[in-house]
Write a structure and sequence with these properties.
- The protein has 170 residues and is α+β, with helices and mostly antiparallel strands.
- The protein has a domain of 113 residues.
- Helix content is 41%, strand content 12%.
- The protein has two helices and four strands, in the order ααββββ.
- Strands 3-2-1-4 form a four-stranded antiparallel β-sheet, with helices on one face.
- A hairpin with a 2-residue loop joins strand 1 and strand 2.
- The longest helix has 65 residues.
- The radius of gyration is 30 Å and the shape is elongated.
Amino acid sequence: MGLRIPSGKLKVYLNQSRGFTYIGLLLFIAIAGIGLAAAGLSWQYQVKSEKERQLLFAGRQLSSAIKSYFESSASEVKVYPQTLNDLLLDKRVPNIKRHLRQIYPDPMTGKPYWGLIKQQGRIVGVYSPSQAKPLKHAGFSKEESGFTGAHSYQDWIFGQADGVKSVMPE
């Protein structure tokens, strides 16, 4: 035999359960939203941290190439490159000499040019023109100790620090 419930009581029971389900659904959506917001912030932090690692890599490569160009000067007077393209193919020597395989784009701005530090019209260093605040404030190598406490990525100068700063497309 089946269970018999008077029709009036069943109607009251169904009306009460609808409100409870609605509140439960709203609570679930709120909790899911908070969780997704936290995941988004974590993802954003990871992306910026990865861009910083790419900036350090590209800056080190450019700085190393500038130093290599300077050291491989054939004459007794050592000179720095006039453009970043000089690092790709050094035309001062008869053999093919590449100090850099490619000019890396600035990972912080996503643009294909860097801020240049020049002395007497020659490039002695590079920096990112991004004005964003860095995540990393300490723990740099000895050569990059000047990056400690930097207020923006513009303060991360790769190469010699004395010279005239400019942002130039290359």
